[in-house]
Amino acid sequence: MAKSIQMWLDEYGESHQNKTNKRIHWVCVPIIFWTAMAFIYAIPTPTAFAEISPHLNWSSIGAVLVILFYARLSVSLAVGMAAFTAFCYFTILAFDAAFTGYLVISSAVAFVIVWAAQFYGHEVEGKKPSFFKDVQYLMIGPAWLMSFIYQKVGLKY
Predict the structure, then answer these.
(1) In whole numbers, what is the pLDDT of the chain averaged over residues?
(2) Model pTM greater than 0.90?
């Protein structure tokens, strides 16, 4: 039996009870998502991609796959994650245009710092990160945060 989105979120939440760890996740999880997209964006794309669309690249393809992953669990939550993913994508484009040549190194520095913070948060929590149990939890983290936003504004996921 496949897990429901609520099952994924509840299991993820089990190792995210400590207030300090939660606060760290609110900052670090979105940055990790952004840096992962930035790394993928930096992968050179075939010329044929650009001939189809300036936005057809490995990052945009990955973004579609990410949204399909979320849609499989919750169409409603996938809408919010699609908006966040689009925000990340367009800020990556803006960053790359403003700081040409610095996207990968900047992302790498941020990635290392926020992962160190994440591990510190789990040390405070006293529990291992969920992705040690199942790598899919790397995708659940952003959805877990989005679920709190949905609850705050009264949307069902």
Answers:
(1) 96
(2) yes
